[in-house]
Amino acid sequence: MQARLLTLLARDDRVRMAPLIGAVVLVIAGALLLMAGLGFALAAAFLALELVLSPAWAALATAGAAVAAAGIAVGVAGRMQSKASIPDGLELGADLIRRHPLESAAAALVAGIAVGGSEDAKRSLMTALSSAVTRL
């Protein structure tokens, strides 16, 4: 019965996730097009600067502009992230991830590979998650 319930839940999740997956694909496609557009804009800036500067200085100016734009984007993202609130139950985990980002990323990678490569691990994870959800 539990397997049947998980199958029904998974099917329902797939139906509900379809619009989200479509949105994620569109965002990724948009990001790739934006990156291509920025690349062409930087190439055009280099070609324009090359008319008045030597190629080395034009490349340096173009790279400097790209690095400055990236710094501004990272700064804005950092301010947005600092304003985001973390739910009470996740503070300990978030603190642990902040203190050990490399180890957390490595653990997530290993866990993803283990769960993705083993049917037994997938089943065990689904059982653990379903029992955790029923306790809530």
Task: Describe the protein in words.
The protein is mostly helical. The chain contains 5 helices and no strands. 89% of the residues lie in helices and 0% in strands. The mean pLDDT is 76.
Topology:
Layout: H1 2-50, H2 55-83, H3 91-99, H4 101-117, H5 119-135
Helix pairs in contact: 1-2, 3-4, 4-5
Please report the distance between the alpha carbons of the first and last residues: 20 Å
Shape: elongated
Write down the oligomeric state. Answer: single chain
Number of strands: 0
Which percent band covers the strand fraction? Answer: under 5%
- Unreliable stretches covering 5 or more consecutive residues: none
- The helicity comes to over 70%
Largest sheet: none
**Element-by-element helix/strand order:** HHHHH
Number of domains: 2
Calculate Rg over CA atoms.
23 Å
Q: Which features would summarize this protein structure in a list?
A:
89% helix
Concise overview:
This protein is mainly α. 89% of the residues lie in helices and 0% in strands. The protein has 5 helices and no strands.
